[in-house]
Protein backbone atom coordinates (compact mmCIF):
# COMPACT_ATOMS: atom_id res chain seq x y z
CA UNK A 1 0.00 0.00 0.00
CA UNK A 2 1.46 3.30 -1.09
CA UNK A 3 1.00 6.19 1.33
CA UNK A 4 2.28 9.69 0.54
CA UNK A 5 2.49 12.64 2.92
CA UNK A 6 3.18 16.34 2.34
CA UNK A 7 5.06 17.47 5.42
CA UNK A 8 6.78 20.33 7.19
CA UNK A 9 9.08 19.89 10.17
CA UNK A 10 8.05 18.85 13.66
CA UNK A 11 4.33 18.11 13.11
CA UNK A 12 5.01 16.27 9.87
CA UNK A 13 7.91 14.31 11.31
CA UNK A 14 6.12 13.15 14.46
CA UNK A 15 3.01 12.14 12.58
CA UNK A 16 5.03 10.21 9.99
CA UNK A 17 6.94 8.38 12.72
CA UNK A 18 3.64 7.48 14.40
CA UNK A 19 2.26 6.27 11.06
CA UNK A 20 5.32 4.17 10.26
CA UNK A 21 5.40 2.56 13.70
CA UNK A 22 1.65 1.97 13.76
CA UNK A 23 1.75 0.17 10.41
CA UNK A 24 4.79 -1.87 11.46
CA UNK A 25 2.83 -3.09 14.50
CA UNK A 26 -0.70 -3.39 13.14
CA UNK A 27 -0.27 -3.68 9.37
CA UNK A 28 -2.11 -1.90 6.59
CA UNK A 29 -5.86 -2.30 5.99
CA UNK A 30 -5.26 -4.37 2.85
CA UNK A 31 -2.52 -6.46 4.46
CA UNK A 32 0.17 -5.39 2.01
CA UNK A 33 3.41 -3.83 3.17
CA UNK A 34 3.43 -0.06 3.51
CA UNK A 35 5.51 2.06 1.17
CA UNK A 36 5.62 5.52 2.70
CA UNK A 37 6.85 8.58 0.80
CA UNK A 38 7.22 11.94 2.49
CA UNK A 39 7.36 15.05 0.31
CA UNK A 40 9.03 17.64 2.50
CA UNK A 41 8.81 21.43 2.46
CA UNK A 42 12.06 23.15 1.48
CA UNK A 43 10.72 26.71 1.75
CA UNK A 44 12.52 27.12 5.09
CA UNK A 45 15.91 26.28 3.57
CA UNK A 46 18.67 28.81 4.04
CA UNK A 47 22.36 29.36 3.28
CA UNK A 48 24.37 29.93 6.47
CA UNK A 49 28.15 30.25 6.55
CA UNK A 50 28.22 28.86 3.03
CA UNK A 51 26.28 25.78 4.11
CA UNK A 52 22.88 24.64 2.87
CA UNK A 53 20.55 24.13 5.80
CA UNK A 54 17.24 22.32 5.18
CA UNK A 55 15.42 22.52 8.53
CA UNK A 56 12.32 20.50 7.65
CA UNK A 57 14.16 17.75 5.78
CA UNK A 58 16.56 17.39 8.70
CA UNK A 59 13.78 17.32 11.29
CA UNK A 60 11.98 14.56 9.39
CA UNK A 61 15.22 12.63 8.78
CA UNK A 62 16.43 12.87 12.39
CA UNK A 63 12.99 12.08 13.84
CA UNK A 64 12.50 8.98 11.71
CA UNK A 65 16.13 7.95 12.10
CA UNK A 66 16.17 8.10 15.90
CA UNK A 67 18.50 11.11 15.99
CA UNK A 68 16.19 13.93 17.05
CA UNK A 69 16.34 16.02 20.21
CA UNK A 70 12.95 14.92 21.50
CA UNK A 71 12.37 17.81 23.88
CA UNK A 72 13.20 20.44 21.30
CA UNK A 73 11.58 18.71 18.35
CA UNK A 74 14.47 19.69 16.05
CA UNK A 75 18.23 19.27 16.02
CA UNK A 76 20.32 16.51 17.60
CA UNK A 77 20.52 15.47 21.25
CA UNK A 78 23.79 15.82 23.19
CA UNK A 79 24.88 18.75 21.03
CA UNK A 80 27.84 21.04 21.58
CA UNK A 81 28.39 24.49 20.11
CA UNK A 82 32.11 24.69 19.66
CA UNK A 83 32.00 25.51 15.95
CA UNK A 84 29.36 28.19 16.44
CA UNK A 85 31.43 29.73 19.24
CA UNK A 86 34.45 29.83 16.93
CA UNK A 87 32.37 31.51 14.24
CA UNK A 88 31.11 34.07 16.76
CA UNK A 89 34.73 34.80 17.65
CA UNK A 90 35.17 35.85 14.03
CA UNK A 91 32.07 38.01 14.24
CA UNK A 92 30.02 35.60 12.13
CA UNK A 93 26.58 34.18 12.68
CA UNK A 94 23.63 35.24 14.78
CA UNK A 95 22.74 34.61 18.40
CA UNK A 96 19.23 33.61 17.44
CA UNK A 97 20.05 30.72 15.12
CA UNK A 98 21.63 27.77 16.88
CA UNK A 99 23.66 25.32 14.87
CA UNK A 100 25.05 22.48 16.93
CA UNK A 101 28.27 20.73 15.95
CA UNK A 102 26.62 17.41 15.07
CA UNK A 103 23.94 19.19 13.05
CA UNK A 104 26.65 21.15 11.23
CA UNK A 105 28.10 17.83 10.13
CA UNK A 106 24.88 17.17 8.21
CA UNK A 107 25.01 20.59 6.56
CA UNK A 108 28.65 20.16 5.57
CA UNK A 109 27.87 16.74 4.07
CA UNK A 110 24.85 18.09 2.20
CA UNK A 111 26.72 21.10 0.88
CA UNK A 112 29.67 18.99 -0.23
CA UNK A 113 27.36 16.82 -2.34
CA UNK A 114 25.48 19.83 -3.73
CA UNK A 115 28.82 21.37 -4.68
CA UNK A 116 29.64 18.21 -6.62
CA UNK A 117 26.56 18.99 -8.67
CA UNK A 118 24.10 16.50 -7.22
CA UNK A 119 20.48 17.62 -7.00
CA UNK A 120 18.95 18.00 -3.52
CA UNK A 121 16.74 14.94 -4.05
CA UNK A 122 19.80 12.72 -4.62
CA UNK A 123 21.65 14.35 -1.74
CA UNK A 124 18.66 13.72 0.53
CA UNK A 125 18.58 10.08 -0.50
CA UNK A 126 22.28 9.71 0.27
CA UNK A 127 22.02 11.41 3.67
CA UNK A 128 19.11 9.12 4.49
CA UNK A 129 21.23 6.00 3.92
CA UNK A 130 22.85 6.70 7.26
CA UNK A 131 19.57 7.35 9.10
CA UNK A 132 17.45 4.56 7.60
CA UNK A 133 14.18 6.45 8.14
CA UNK A 134 12.07 3.56 6.83
CA UNK A 135 10.30 5.90 4.42
CA UNK A 136 11.20 7.50 1.12
CA UNK A 137 12.19 11.15 1.73
CA UNK A 138 11.76 13.63 -1.10
CA UNK A 139 12.31 17.37 -1.10
CA UNK A 140 9.34 19.09 -2.74
CA UNK A 141 11.71 20.50 -5.38
CA UNK A 142 15.36 20.40 -6.40
CA UNK A 143 15.21 24.14 -7.16
CA UNK A 144 15.70 26.49 -4.22
CA UNK A 145 12.57 28.42 -3.29
CA UNK A 146 12.90 30.18 0.02
CA UNK A 147 10.02 31.71 1.91
CA UNK A 148 10.47 35.38 2.75
CA UNK A 149 8.21 37.56 4.84
CA UNK A 150 7.29 41.14 4.01
CA UNK A 151 7.40 43.26 7.15
CA UNK A 152 7.06 46.99 7.81
CA UNK A 153 10.23 49.05 7.67
CA UNK A 154 9.87 52.81 8.02
CA UNK A 155 13.47 53.37 6.86
CA UNK A 156 12.95 51.73 3.48
CA UNK A 157 11.54 53.77 0.53
CA UNK A 158 8.77 51.22 0.01
CA UNK A 159 7.91 51.20 3.72
CA UNK A 160 8.51 47.45 3.84
CA UNK A 161 11.30 44.93 3.51
CA UNK A 162 11.64 41.21 2.97
CA UNK A 163 13.29 39.06 5.59
CA UNK A 164 13.99 35.34 5.40
CA UNK A 165 11.29 33.18 6.97
CA UNK A 166 13.74 31.82 9.55
CA UNK A 167 14.53 35.34 10.74
CA UNK A 168 10.84 36.13 11.14
CA UNK A 169 10.03 32.80 12.78
CA UNK A 170 13.04 32.15 15.01
CA UNK A 171 14.38 35.61 15.75
CA UNK A 172 11.11 37.50 15.94
CA UNK A 173 8.96 34.52 17.04
CA UNK A 174 6.49 35.53 14.29
CA UNK A 175 5.58 38.59 16.36
CA UNK A 176 6.50 41.16 13.68
CA UNK A 177 3.32 41.85 11.73
CA UNK A 178 3.68 40.10 8.37
CA UNK A 179 2.10 41.62 5.29
CA UNK A 180 2.57 38.56 3.11
CA UNK A 181 4.75 35.58 2.39
CA UNK A 182 6.84 35.54 -0.76
CA UNK A 183 8.20 32.22 -1.97
CA UNK A 184 11.24 33.37 -3.92
CA UNK A 185 11.75 31.09 -6.91
CA UNK A 186 8.56 29.09 -6.43
CA UNK A 187 7.07 29.92 -9.83
CA UNK A 188 10.12 28.50 -11.60
CA UNK A 189 10.46 25.49 -9.33
CA UNK A 190 9.57 22.02 -10.52
CA UNK A 191 8.49 19.12 -8.35
CA UNK A 192 11.52 16.96 -7.52
CA UNK A 193 11.74 13.67 -9.44
CA UNK A 194 9.23 11.21 -8.01
CA UNK A 195 7.01 13.78 -6.29
CA UNK A 196 4.14 13.84 -8.79
CA UNK A 197 4.21 10.05 -9.14
CA UNK A 198 4.18 9.64 -5.38
CA UNK A 199 0.96 11.68 -5.28
CA UNK A 200 -0.85 10.36 -8.34
CA UNK A 201 0.10 6.71 -7.82
CA UNK A 202 -0.58 6.61 -4.09
CA UNK A 203 -3.36 4.60 -2.47
CA UNK A 204 -3.72 7.24 0.22
CA UNK A 205 -2.38 10.79 0.52
CA UNK A 206 -2.14 12.26 4.01
CA UNK A 207 -1.65 15.83 5.12
CA UNK A 208 -0.07 15.49 8.56
CA UNK A 209 -0.67 18.29 11.08
CA UNK A 210 1.92 20.57 9.49
CA UNK A 211 1.77 24.32 9.09
CA UNK A 212 -0.96 24.89 6.46
CA UNK A 213 0.64 28.10 5.17
CA UNK A 214 4.43 27.87 5.19
CA UNK A 215 4.81 24.07 5.09
CA UNK A 216 1.95 22.36 3.24
CA UNK A 217 0.92 25.63 1.53
CA UNK A 218 4.42 26.05 0.12
CA UNK A 219 4.52 22.47 -1.18
CA UNK A 220 1.11 22.91 -2.84
CA UNK A 221 2.46 26.09 -4.47
CA UNK A 222 5.12 24.24 -6.48
CA UNK A 223 3.69 24.26 -10.01
CA UNK A 224 2.06 20.90 -10.71
CA UNK A 225 1.68 19.66 -7.16
CA UNK A 226 -1.77 21.05 -6.36
CA UNK A 227 -2.97 19.78 -9.74
CA UNK A 228 -1.63 16.29 -8.94
CA UNK A 229 -3.49 16.44 -5.63
CA UNK A 230 -6.77 17.25 -7.34
CA UNK A 231 -6.18 14.52 -9.94
CA UNK A 232 -4.99 11.55 -7.87
CA UNK A 233 -7.35 8.61 -7.51
CA UNK A 234 -6.14 8.24 -3.91
CA UNK A 235 -8.18 9.68 -1.08
CA UNK A 236 -6.61 12.75 0.47
CA UNK A 237 -7.10 13.01 4.21
CA UNK A 238 -5.66 15.73 6.46
CA UNK A 239 -5.10 16.06 10.19
CA UNK A 240 -5.77 19.47 11.72
CA UNK A 241 -2.77 21.20 13.30
CA UNK A 242 -5.25 23.56 14.98
CA UNK A 243 -7.03 22.27 18.08
CA UNK A 244 -9.71 24.33 19.77
CA UNK A 245 -8.68 27.47 17.91
CA UNK A 246 -4.92 27.34 18.55
CA UNK A 247 -1.86 25.55 17.19
CA UNK A 248 -0.47 22.83 19.45
CA UNK A 249 2.98 24.39 19.24
CA UNK A 250 4.58 27.12 17.18
CA UNK A 251 2.96 30.19 15.67
CA UNK A 252 0.87 28.83 12.81
CA UNK A 253 -1.85 31.26 13.90
CA UNK A 254 0.36 34.20 12.84
CA UNK A 255 0.78 32.59 9.40
CA UNK A 256 -2.95 31.98 9.00
CA UNK A 257 -3.78 35.55 10.04
CA UNK A 258 -1.35 36.86 7.43
CA UNK A 259 -3.17 35.08 4.62
CA UNK A 260 -6.60 36.01 6.03
CA UNK A 261 -7.62 32.59 7.30
CA UNK A 262 -9.12 32.19 10.76
CA UNK A 263 -7.21 30.00 13.22
CA UNK A 264 -9.66 27.14 13.45
CA UNK A 265 -9.73 23.54 12.32
CA UNK A 266 -12.72 24.28 10.10
CA UNK A 267 -11.21 27.35 8.44
CA UNK A 268 -8.01 25.45 7.64
CA UNK A 269 -10.04 22.67 5.99
CA UNK A 270 -12.01 25.23 3.98
CA UNK A 271 -8.75 26.88 2.98
CA UNK A 272 -7.39 23.57 1.66
CA UNK A 273 -10.75 23.14 -0.02
CA UNK A 274 -12.93 20.17 -0.86
CA UNK A 275 -12.04 18.02 -3.86
CA UNK A 276 -15.76 17.59 -4.44
CA UNK A 277 -17.06 21.14 -4.41
CA UNK A 278 -15.80 24.46 -5.72
CA UNK A 279 -14.51 26.45 -2.77
CA UNK A 280 -16.32 29.74 -2.16
CA UNK A 281 -13.01 31.61 -2.34
CA UNK A 282 -11.84 30.02 -5.60
CA UNK A 283 -13.42 29.99 -9.02
CA UNK A 284 -12.62 26.38 -9.95
CA UNK A 285 -12.45 23.18 -8.01
CA UNK A 286 -8.90 23.33 -6.76
CA UNK A 287 -9.57 21.88 -3.35
CA UNK A 288 -7.33 19.07 -2.17
CA UNK A 289 -9.26 17.37 0.64
CA UNK A 290 -11.56 14.35 0.74
CA UNK A 291 -11.32 14.01 4.48
CA UNK A 292 -10.30 16.01 7.54
CA UNK A 293 -9.69 14.94 11.10
CA UNK A 294 -10.50 17.46 13.81
CA UNK A 295 -10.00 17.27 17.54
CA UNK A 296 -12.93 16.43 19.82
CA UNK A 297 -12.87 20.09 20.85
CA UNK A 298 -13.83 20.98 17.26
CA UNK A 299 -16.52 18.32 16.79
CA UNK A 300 -19.09 20.99 15.93
CA UNK A 301 -17.25 21.57 12.63
CA UNK A 302 -17.84 18.02 11.38
CA UNK A 303 -21.33 18.55 10.00
CA UNK A 304 -20.48 21.83 8.29
CA UNK A 305 -17.46 20.24 6.60
CA UNK A 306 -19.53 17.28 5.45
CA UNK A 307 -21.89 19.83 3.85
CA UNK A 308 -19.07 20.92 1.53
CA UNK A 309 -18.08 17.36 0.67
CA UNK A 310 -15.26 16.88 3.17
CA UNK A 311 -15.70 13.68 5.21
CA UNK A 312 -14.83 14.73 8.74
CA UNK A 313 -14.24 12.87 11.99
CA UNK A 314 -13.60 14.16 15.49
CA UNK A 315 -11.13 12.38 17.79
CA UNK A 316 -8.29 13.35 20.13
CA UNK A 317 -5.57 14.88 17.93
CA UNK A 318 -2.74 15.31 20.42
CA UNK A 319 0.01 13.07 19.11
CA UNK A 320 1.51 10.56 21.50
CA UNK A 321 3.76 7.53 21.24
CA UNK A 322 2.47 5.65 24.30
CA UNK A 323 0.11 2.80 23.39
CA UNK A 324 -3.28 2.91 25.12
CA UNK A 325 -5.41 0.00 26.35
CA UNK A 326 -6.23 -0.97 22.75
CA UNK A 327 -2.51 -1.22 21.92
CA UNK A 328 -2.69 1.80 19.64
CA UNK A 329 -1.01 5.17 20.12
CA UNK A 330 -2.94 8.43 19.73
CA UNK A 331 -1.26 8.91 16.36
CA UNK A 332 -2.13 5.32 15.41
CA UNK A 333 -5.80 6.06 16.09
CA UNK A 334 -5.56 9.10 13.80
CA UNK A 335 -4.06 6.88 11.10
CA UNK A 336 -6.90 4.36 11.50
CA UNK A 337 -9.45 7.19 11.35
CA UNK A 338 -7.86 8.37 8.10
CA UNK A 339 -8.10 4.82 6.70
CA UNK A 340 -11.76 4.81 7.77
CA UNK A 341 -12.45 8.06 5.94
CA UNK A 342 -10.75 6.73 2.81
CA UNK A 343 -12.77 3.50 2.96
CA UNK A 344 -16.03 5.43 3.45
CA UNK A 345 -15.24 7.46 0.35
CA UNK A 346 -14.62 4.31 -1.68
CA UNK A 347 -18.08 2.97 -0.89
CA UNK A 348 -19.99 6.17 -1.74
P1 LIG B 1 7.57 23.05 11.58
O1 LIG B 1 8.09 23.09 10.18
O2 LIG B 1 8.56 22.51 12.57
O3 LIG B 1 6.91 24.31 12.00
O4 LIG B 1 6.48 21.90 11.62
P2 LIG B 1 5.20 21.61 10.76
O5 LIG B 1 5.03 22.48 9.59
O6 LIG B 1 5.18 20.14 10.52
O7 LIG B 1 4.00 21.91 11.71
C1 LIG B 1 3.95 22.32 12.97
C2 LIG B 1 2.46 22.18 13.33
O8 LIG B 1 2.27 20.94 13.99
C3 LIG B 1 2.00 23.26 14.27
O9 LIG B 1 1.05 24.07 13.63
C4 LIG B 1 1.36 22.49 15.42
O10 LIG B 1 0.11 23.01 15.78
C5 LIG B 1 1.20 21.09 14.89
N1 LIG B 1 1.32 20.09 15.93
C6 LIG B 1 2.37 19.91 16.75
N2 LIG B 1 2.10 18.90 17.62
C7 LIG B 1 0.85 18.45 17.32
C8 LIG B 1 -0.01 17.43 17.86
O11 LIG B 1 0.32 16.70 18.80
N3 LIG B 1 -1.22 17.27 17.26
C9 LIG B 1 -1.63 18.05 16.21
N4 LIG B 1 -2.85 17.81 15.69
N5 LIG B 1 -0.86 19.01 15.70
C10 LIG B 1 0.37 19.21 16.24
CA1 LIG C 1 9.42 24.34 8.95
Ordered list of secondary-structure elements with their pairings:
Elements lengths: L1 E6 L2 H17 L8 E6 L5 E3 L2 E3 L1 H10 L17 H8 L11 H15 L4 H12 L4 E4 L6 E7 L7 E5 H7 L6 E7 L10 H6 L3 E4 L8 H6 L3 H7 L3 E5 L2 E2 L2 E2 L4 H7 L6 H8 L18 E4 L6 H7 L3 E4 L15 H17 L2
Parallel strand pairs: 1-2, 1-9, 2-5, 9-10, 10-13, 13-14
Antiparallel strand pairs: 3-4, 6-7, 6-8, 11-12
Helix pairs in contact: 1-2, 4-5, 11-12
The chain binds guanosine-5'-diphosphate and calcium ion.
Guanosine-5'-diphosphate binds next to helix 1 and helix 2.
Explain what this protein looks like in three dimensions.
- There is one protein chain.
- The protein has 348 residues and is an alpha/beta fold.
- It has one domain (2-142, 188-243, 264-346): Rossmann fold, CATH 3.40.50.
- It has helices at 10-26, 55-64, 82-89, 101-115, 120-131, 165-171, 195-200, 216-221, 225-231, 252-258, 265-272, 301-307, 330-346; strands at 2-7, 35-40, 46-48, 51-53, 136-139, 146-152, 160-164, 178-184, 204-207, 235-239, 242-243, 246-247, 291-294, 311-314.
- The strands form four sheets. The chain has a seven-stranded parallel sheet, with helices on both faces.
- Strand 1, helix 1 and strand 2 form a beta-alpha-beta unit.
- Helix 4 (101-115) packs across helix 5 (120-131) and helix 11 (265-272) packs parallel to helix 12 (301-307).
- The longest helix has 17 residues, at 10-26.
- The chain is globular.
- It binds guanosine-5'-diphosphate (GDP) and calcium ion.
- Guanosine-5'-diphosphate (GDP) is lined by residues 7-12, 56, 59, 209-211, 215, 239-241, 243, 247-250, 252, 317-319.
